What we know:
- GO terms for molecular function: S-adenosylmethionine-dependent methyltransferase activity.
- By secondary structure, the chain is an alpha/beta fold.
- It contains 10 helices and 8 strands.
- It has helices spanning 2-11, 35-44, 58-61, 77-87, 120-126, 144-151, 163-166, 172-181, 201-210, 224-237, and strands spanning 26-28, 48-51, 69-74, 91-93, 107-113, 127-138, 185-198, 240-252.
- It has an 8-stranded mixed beta sheet with strand order 1-7-8-6-5-2-3-4, sandwiched between helices.
- The chain is globular.
Amino acid sequence: MFSDRLAEGLAVPVEGWDFSWFDGRATEQRPSWGYARLLADRAASATALLDVQTGGGEVLASVPVLPPVVAATESWEPNLAIARKRLGEVVAHVADDADLPFPDRHFDLVVSRHPVATRWDEIARVLTPGGRYLAQHVGSGTVRELTEFMMGPVTSGRRDRDPLTTRSGVDVVGLVTAAERAGLDVVDVRHEALRMEFFDVAAVVVFLRKVVWTVPGFTVDAYRDRLETLHDFIERHGPFVAHSQRILIEAVR
């Protein structure tokens, strides 16, 4: 059974940010604010929209009414191909920490869902006066329970062992400070810790292959012993529980 679960987890494609495979295999509580709904509301009154680090373009493609000008960026080539298939050539290939290839004051709405890195100076540059930044960021410590189960405890003296601090995790104070330093006025910021459940080890394997910074360098071979221990835990005690950290921020230039 354990080997079958591993094989199943390895067979699932992990390109893009479509998580529909996890239905019935894992759950994640959604933030109360409803990012997609907020995005649709802001997009309906915008004239030019930029989606930074769009992933596979899944969220942007769900917006019912898009403004006349739409652009997006994505860094990872497998996601880029999916996003361009979904959104067209409006998706530019841009590294997460690179300058944005757009003119000054070009967009009145810049959005991002789970950015890996945020160039606040570039966001402020491409926003029109009065333009708005709306984003849902990943908070530091997301899925820490799973990281620590696989890698061991993350201690205050070993911040390098905290992937969501070194990769993309942020805290509320740091996020607001960075936005304000770039010249943006923060008009809304919210934080929620959200319950996640993994119902079998195949779901864990797919998640770790997909969200690669949770356990940097993860392979099934390298972590086989820990995966088997996790499989036994789930079989005996039920779902493995972790928590994601999500931060909503909205700021105006």
